[in-house]
Design brief:
- It is built from 13 helices and 15 strands.
- The protein has 408 residues and is an alpha/beta fold.
- The strands form three sheets. It has an eight-stranded parallel barrel with strand order 1-3-4-5-8-9-10-15, surrounded by eight helices. Strands 2-13 form a two-stranded parallel sheet. The protein has a two-stranded antiparallel ribbon with strand order 6-7.
- Helix 3 packs across helix 5, helix 5 packs parallel to helix 6 and helix 6 packs across helix 7.
- 50% of the residues are buried.
């Protein structure tokens, strides 16, 4: 089993041909199915249901607004989380698919909580009824208390082994095979689908432990990492790339980040300061005590980026324009890119040069921040040749309007 190596400096961007020789980035947004707010909302990976919520309930009406905003400005898909702290991702996205025309849904789900045959069938049904707009984010689960609440009492290593067996069955069914498997954790006999999904949904997978890397290298299409500084992201890319190559596979790479972007750097950092000022220390202490019990290696790495205190916003800048303040009250992805549209684009370009192919972004509130990113950062990336609006999106069809009566 290959351990992730320790890297002290970013990988050479020329390793993969640099940004100039690589395909443009794919940009995704996020659906706050636990509620939204003008302040930082608790919840996220490993948090209890009571930790989430906000002044904007996660109603279908509000989530529809977020979906339409993301679709309008040119995002490819929207990540929808899974857990006790949010609404069910499958049901919510199935209902929202009818409110959108092009946007895809990156649905997070726990492989230990349903049959692999049923999951494969659900994916095929979703693809058929949505016109092929499903992507799947496999969440193995790093929190024993939450897993037990769902009736899952396996330990962390066994959860990853089960996940590998689960994806083995699902992949076989999607190929149109009849699958028999007597595994350590999963057993199916004569499993088959009447109709395979078309297209087959890509599988996104994240995890920082050695077993997570093995499963990702064997089964994932896109390896997702949370927003660590470039040196650590480069380390993960090289680690997973090597594991996949040993299996004769190639894997794409994505990064999950929050964003605070404004027309000027000062305005963006002022917003970060406002968000930080709105967090009571008692809430930070409670959330950090909860996260300290996490079995997730990725969560440990997120917590290591901040001290758990409320200093000035700038004191939580762990790398240029990379702010760890979100992780004070939110599990999972705990960093945000903060800066002007140009600065945020610079940082995204830096990750792209390291090997990142896809970005999954979010901001508070998700409705307004979708427009800040979509009207500021994405066009800047487009001008650099690093992003192209999805075909059929309003962003792809937009052009500078003529000015009446001027001839221009």
């Amino acid at each position: 089993m290959t351990e992730a190596p320790v890297l002290t400096s970013p990988a050479d961007p020329a390793h993969d041909g640099g940004a100039a020789g690589r395909p443009p980035l794919v940009a995704h947004w996020f659906l706050p199915t636990y509620g939204d707010s003008r302040g930082l909302v608790g919840g996220g990976h490993g948090m209890a249901a009571t930790a989430a919520g906000g002044s904007r309930p996660a109603s279908l009406g509000y989530l529809t607004q977020v979906v339409r905003a993301a679709e309008t400005v040119g995002f490819e898909a929207a990540l929808t989380p899974a857990g006790l702290w949010c609404e069910d991702a499958w049901l919510t996205t199935a209902m929202l698919a009818g409110a959108s025309e092009r946007l895809k849904f990156l649905v997070a789900f726990r492989p230990g909580l349903l049959s692999p045959t049923l999951a494969a069938q659900m994916a095929a049904t979703f693809q058929r009824h949505s016109g092929g707009r499903l992507l799947l984010n496999v969440v193995t689960g790093g929190e024993p208390a939450e897993q037990r609440a769902y009736g899952d009492f396996l330990g962390k290593d066994d959860r990853y082994r089960r996940c590998g067996e689960f994806l083995q069955v699902v992949r076989g069914l999607w190929r149109g095979e009849t699958v028999d498997l007597v595994g350590e954790h999963i057993q199916v006999e004569g499993a088959r689908l009447e109709t395979v999904p078309d297209p087959v949904p890509p599988v996104y997978f994240g995890g920082s432990s050695p077993l997570a890397g093995e499963v990702a290298a064997e089964h994932s299409d896109v390896y997702l990492t949370w927003g660590e500084p470039p040196a650590q992201v480069a380390q993960k890319i090289e680690w997973i790339r090597g594991l996949a190559a040993a299996r004769g596979r190639t894997v794409r790479f994505g990064i999950r980040l929050h964003v605070i972007t404004r027309d000027t750097s000062d305005a963006a950092w002022a917003q970060a300061e406002t968000l930080l000022a709105g967090i009571p220390q008692g809430m930070i202490d409670e959330v950090q005590a909860n996260l300290a019990r996490s079995e997730s290696e990725g969560q440990r790495r997120m917590r290591a980026l901040h001290s758990g205190g409320t200093a000035r916003a700038a004191d939580l800048e762990v790398s240029p324009n990379l702010w760890a303040g979100v992780g004070l009250v939110r599990g999972g992805a705990g960093t945000a890119l903060v800066g002007s549209h140009t600065e945020v684009a610079d940082r995204i370009a830096e990750y792209h040069a390291l090997g990142i192919d896809e970005i999954v972004l979010s901001g508070h509130p998700h409705l307004e921040e979708a427009y800040w990113v979509g009207e500021g950062v994405l066009p800047e990336l487009g001008r650099r040749g690093l992003w192209v609006p999805p075909a059929g999106s309003p962003a792809a069809a937009s052009a500078p309007a003529s000015i009446p009566f001027t001839g221009r």
